[in-house]
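Fill-in record for MFS transporter.
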Amino acid sequence: MPAHRLPRLTSLRPFDSPGYFAVWLGALISNIGTWMETVAMGVYVTQTTGKAEWTGAVVALSFLPAVILAPVGGALADRFDRRAYAGLGALLQAALAAVLTVLAFRGQLSVSAIGVISFLNGCVSTLTYPAFSALLAELVPPEDLHLSTSLNSAQFNLGRILGPTLAAVVLQAGGPAWALLANTLSFFAVLVALWRVVPPARDPAVKREPLWDGIRRGITVARDDEDISLVLAATFFVAALVAPFIGLVPVFAIRELGQGAAATSLLVTCQGAGAVTAALGVGTLAELFGQRKLRGYSATTIAVLAGVYWLAPTLQVAAVCIFFLGANYLVLMSSLSASCQGRVPRELQARMGSLYSMVLGAGYSLGVWFQGALADRMHLRFVTIGSAAIFLALVLTTRLLKPARFENEPLAQAADVQPFSDSAH
């Protein structure tokens, strides 16, 4: 669909940038397949083991590599052709998905095999996603970076809507093997999109540092910038204390609500619907409140919404609650991600994105496993509501101690990023 025929909403402005829509659409198709696999494997592990700890552990394995490999992925993305590097990652992920597909069709699928493939897939994704994220940032002007990040989250969550719906149909009709096959084929949409796009030429004057020097400089920039440091800390805590609601959906649907695969798909779909709805309005919200105030409001309300969701007595109430929780989660996380990249020049954006991914992966893998393990020994709702309450206390304490960090940024940030740009030469 040509970009000029799309609705003229502020939030959709990045679609006017050449190549952005093609990459966005290819990623959407791939994510539909990914969510088909995620739902199928979540239901399989929960029903096979009957333990929340195993479900959380398998999810955690796909995020755990980010703790170590994310800075390496960011540095590599700032050294090589980002389009080719992202394409290599898509090929490797397709190969891993194909292994799971073959095992499923041969009746040899197991929880251990799913765990190993999840870990390897996490390694590939961690090393190559910074290149994909930075490529999207290259395709839009700097003032549209937050909108680009929100739309990228929207396509991920639109896949969360369509993927689980298709997964429920496929699981009922043919079993997990067909959902895994769909995911394998979906990666080729990314390859076609990357082949069609022409990224902007990179500045030949930018010095290419040795790999480890590049990693150290990215960490130094993040450490010395108080805004980036605070954003990364917030990312860790929301990932560890609130975000496990995503990975524990099968446990909540099956154990707490007494439902099955269809209910799991419904909850995942409703979360995605909320996120997509929020993505369409996030540009307007950012213009209305400003980036910092919007972050502060969404950080406060997400803890409340998470608590309400976990208290839901029925599937219908839970579906409504997770819709609003998913919307709030997109607004908060897209703002945090854009803040990391928006305060540095383009040659450092992949490294900032990788540090964000590292913190997100560390927090989420720890949180989803630990909450799942506690839920097997205590009541699931007690564990998850308690975690949300801890996060709310942290947010309110931060607002009290650092109120200026919840006020609007200056209209121009050039002075903030210029010193980092100069240090690159």
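KEY FINDING: The domain at 213-408 is CATH 1.20.1250.20 (Growth Hormone; Chain: A;).
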